[in-house]
Amino acid sequence: ALFYDMARSELLLNGKLGEPFYPFGDDASRVTAVSWQAWWIPAKDGTPGWKNRQPVFSDITLDSRLVQQLATPFGTHVGGLWQQVPSAPGNKYELMVEAQAWSSDDVAPGSQVEAGDVNMQVGIDPTGGLDPESPLIVWSQVHQPLSRWEMIHLAADAEADIITVYLKSAPSLPKRQQAVFWRNAFLRPVGRHKRSVNIVGIGDTHISIEPEYPYPGDPVTVSVSSTREHQRIGLLVRDPDGASPSVANLGKALDGERHVWRYEFKTAVDGLYEVRFVGDRGARMLSLRLLQVARNVQLVSSDASRLAYKRVYVLLPPTADVSWFTAAARGGFNGRFTIGFSADDAGIGDLGSKHVLAVNPHHWPEVLTAVWFKQHYPGAEFTPVVANKPEDLEAWLKDWLGSES
Fold it and tell me: I want to staple 47 with a disulfide (CB 3.0 to 4.6 A). Which of 24, 43, 97, 277 is the partner?
């Protein structure tokens, strides 16, 4: 992780909760602002027909602009919207959203005749979960912003690399006019904070980038690999100025048991680019990489060793447990490979030959690549090894040893 300036710290996509709007599949009752996904709690068996109905999600023009609406006329609901965003464990995040509601037995827009409570809240799941009933969600106080815009505020500490933002309403009584509106959501880290450089999502979903250290103007190829066949996916890129470069979809392929999607975009300026692999037009956070674009790379020399010997170093990621270490020892025993967890130990030394076998390099906070070793430890030969389980690693090492002999 790294520290960065608060000046460009907005994390939500389409925080304005405005256009464009789109239906989920062909469901005209689930039209949401892009990058947001609908949720609601279904009614239980035996519940009266007016209670806990599925809201109709749609756009509506209020104050001369489109905003998000949820409506259950003559009924109630418990539901809202969610979006997953990148985070860093230990950071505090502040969420602010504007909310308004109409609750009335009258037909006039904004009327408050016999109004009921609408119980609007915002929440943050610090673990990135997608269960709106989870006890882990931190909720704001309940608000009743009848016929006026009111800011709802919440702060919570992240416990994972992804957090989930929830918007919620739960009217208590059925009303002829029962609608809630959301706009202008803003989420940012509070104070000095960290940012995750590399987020590996469910299904070991991770992003590889080539070249690793591009110059401004260079085309960049992005490969996303996962054991899951994610649906409704896409790649979103934000440059240092907050603009979104055009992304070309290069197609999808199978690589053994893994699904691989490839994209391409072109860098324009120096600075830090955010590359997100997302689902549901940005609502689901599947993986992330930060990409540094700069004009110059400084090489750092390595230390000299006593003897110029050949070394093969099996580099395990910080996520590896003893089963991975055992597999590496079994697989590399005949070759007397060195096994460890330090990228610096793997690369250091002015040796006749040094070969780094980096196991699941995408599991490091900052993804390890051949370019990283070339920059910090010139002369180190780098081979990434993506293994889904320890047994696969053991077999690969034995096969690789055989091919080397």
Answer: 43
